[in-house]
Fold:
Amino acid sequence: MKILIIEDNRLLAESIKRQLKVSFVVDIAYTGEEAIEQARAIEYSVILLDLGLPDMNGYDVCHELRAARLNTPILVLTGVHDIMSRVKLLEAGADDYVTKPFHADELRARITALIRRGGHRVDEETIKVRDMVIDVGRRHVYRAGNSITLRRKEFDILEYLVRNRGRTVTRAMIFDHVWESGKEGWNNTVDVHIKHLRDKIDRPYAIPLIKTTYGIGYMVDDAD
Structure:
């Protein structure tokens, strides 16, 4: 899952990113304009928004994102403590807020709660496709009762495919979801990772789960 941090304090932004990148793919935007452009172009699970940006305030960013009909949960990082300011944040379109200074565990818990609210559970969740079971919380995969160890990108790709099962996702969609924005890869970066993934979860078994939609991308289909 991918998160956007909107924070002009570069040291703080990088610190938050380090704390979250164990569980999420994390992008950073340092201005409101940059953030709005990224949020319109990329599908994020949660947006973390600081109010004090150099070009526009966080309230305006919330309004712009909601006016663009983006329903991505917005968690505001704020030093404001009075009730009326918090009410104003929620009226602007924010879903929740955490006051500075905050602990990494609190931030992670707030993010998890917002993702759950949006329809995904990220703790203690298992997803089953045929004879494959994905333990999302522990980031592990089992097939036909056998434990399969995946590298981080392989797991992220598999989870993305499974959450979109029955639907073809393009190589560009996979790359945008699994890699940080601005990262450059080879033309066949996604294909190479798919090959390694198939070697582990498909080739030892009779029924392949990952299917190629030629000229477009890949899909997982759990239909019999």
Remarks:
- The chain has two domains: 2-117, 126-220.
- The CA atoms of residues 27 and 180 lie 6 Å apart.
